[in-house]
């Protein structure tokens, strides 16, 4: 009997509730922090942090039936997410391109952002973040 080869994932990730788990085998080509108004709306924060790959392979390990996506009509803006908890998840809606929200990875990565993009749309309050107090945990 021939031995079955199992690809070892370079990265693993999941949604907040744990329903969806996935693996990514391969390298990321770029890591953009996008400040456009669409990304602000779908993250609820100042920017989206997404990793991009034209060669990595995504495998849903569990919960694939809970993954859905939304495309903003009239745009190329797409978001994949868990139907149960709403967490952002990898998307493959653009042929030949895997987009992985950095925050859904469970594997630590040394990949650093390639660039900030769409800064012309950045939130007005974002420029003052360096002036705000910081805490290692929740403020007391």
Which features characterize this protein?
4-stranded mixed sheet; 140 residues; mainly beta; 1 helix; disordered N terminus; 10 strands
Overview of the structural elements:
There is one protein chain. The chain is mainly beta and 140 residues long. It is 5% helix and 32% strand. The protein contains one helix and ten strands, in the order E-E-E-H-E-E-E-E-E-E-E. It has one helix at residues 37-43; strands spanning 11-14, 21-25, 30-34, 48-53, 57-62, 67-71, 78-82, 88-89, 98-101, 115-117. The chain has a four-stranded mixed β-sheet. The longest helix has 7 residues, at 37-43. The radius of gyration is 17 Å and the shape is globular. The termini are far apart. Residues 1-6 have low confidence and may be disordered.
Number of E-type strands? 10
Strand content: 25-35%
- pLDDT < 50 runs, ≥5 residues: 1-6
Q: Tally the helices.
A: 1
Largest sheet, strands/sense/barrel: 4 strands, mixed
- Quote the distance from N terminus to C terminus: 61 Å
H/E element order: EEEHEEEEEEE
Structural class: mainly beta
Overall outline: globular
The radius of gyration is 17 Å
How would you describe the oligomerization state of the chains in this entry? Answer: single chain
Helix content: under 10%
Let me know the average pLDDT: 89
